[in-house]
Hints:
Elements: E1 3-5, E2 17-25, E3 37-43, E4 49-52, H1 57-66, H2 83-99, E5 107-110, H3 116-123, E6 129-133, H4 136-146, E7 149-152, E8 165-171, H5 180-188, E9 191-202, E10 224-225, H6 228-235, E11 240-253, E12 256-267, H7 282-310, E13 314-318, H8 322-330, E14 337-342, E15 352-353, E16 356-359, H9 361-366, E17 373-375, H10 381-390, E18 397-399
Parallel strand pairs: 5-6, 5-8, 6-7, 8-9, 13-14, 13-17, 14-16, 17-18
Antiparallel strand pairs: 1-2, 2-3, 3-4, 4-10, 9-12, 11-12, 15-16
Helix pairs in contact: 2-3
Zinc ion binds near residues 10, 12, 13 and 15.
Amino acid sequence: MNQKKSLRNCPICQEENGEIIHTQNFVLPEGHPLSNGYDIICCDRCGFVYADTTVSQKDYDVFYAKLSKYEDKKTATGGGESPYDAARIQKTAECIAEFLPDKSIRILDIGCANGGLLGYLKKLGYNNLCGLDPSPACVENTKQLYGIEAYAGSIFTPPQDLGDFDLVILSHVLEHIQDLKFSVKLIEQLIKVGGYLYVEVPNASGYVDHVFAPFQDFNTEHINHFYHPHLSNLLIQFGLTNKLIGEKVFDVSPGMSYPAIYSFWQKQESNSSELVIAQDKMLKQRILLYIESSKKIMTDIDIKLQSVLEDAADVIVWGTGQLAMKLLVETSLAKANIVAFVDGNPINQGSVISGITVLSPHQIQLREMRQPIIVTSILSQEAIYNAIQKMKLPNRVILLR
Ligand SMILES: [Zn+2]
């Protein structure tokens, strides 16, 4: 047992004591506002599992407004542009339509990204839709792609006079939020009495059944790890009553899937329920299994990297996402002579990691760089491999799995 007084009190029950169950480190691009590591702790009181990060909500707001990976329509999630995103978003829209069939209800999607979910709801006949997202580029995309009213702002800085809503959607938002209780307090004020909240978050109790990239869920962005009892502990504090819960698994790339939980909550006339925080003991056990499984995969990857680096003096690293950030500190890649980083997402190009600039794929070709390419993404490794083939690059290509 490794107890500590947390830097960030439990975001659900405010308890300050917890058990460290893992320590996660990253290498981040220079000037990146998020933290380069944190402990994953389990709350002594309620059993919630979260990142004990000192990064403030304000820093996260800056990050999502300025560095949003979600605004690139080719690689982002949320816009519904990839077939996987489209299928996921369509299912969510259909689930909402089944629960709330009245097409005239006023709906707000908080963290709407490029408006994919709102676009599907529009297709299903809903005509009173509104989006909110911290990234101005995402807001522009929502307006232009779907003709839907949208505003730039986070839940902490919504536009004035937004009014209230019959349904507020929080799909894959709460796992990103530092100040959970304050955010739910603000969100609750946007819901009409008798109106609903739809929440969808990754299913932390299911991480272990879907391990493709090691420690994928312990990243710079996902800092809260929920299962139903923890969402319930959070939302009942604000007078929200549960009406429906469910679980789903969706595909994210070829052969890879991801687990999520969702639930509908109704705002009551008055918040008279007495606060009783229930203790959950299951999530910690499930997360411990996930950590064990991730460690095994990380070890396998490191063995592979060691053998590659033995006979390659210089290498190119293609992929600067969450896995690359971990490999650069936790495997032999930390000691490799990296001549260039490459990333297909324009938002990452030009940033500097460990003193080395991130190039576009085109720049590698122009500069005729011939060093072996290590593909440091598992989720996108097929897409990256196809891109390399299409560009007819002669380099040796190393895939991690
Ligand atoms: Zn707690």
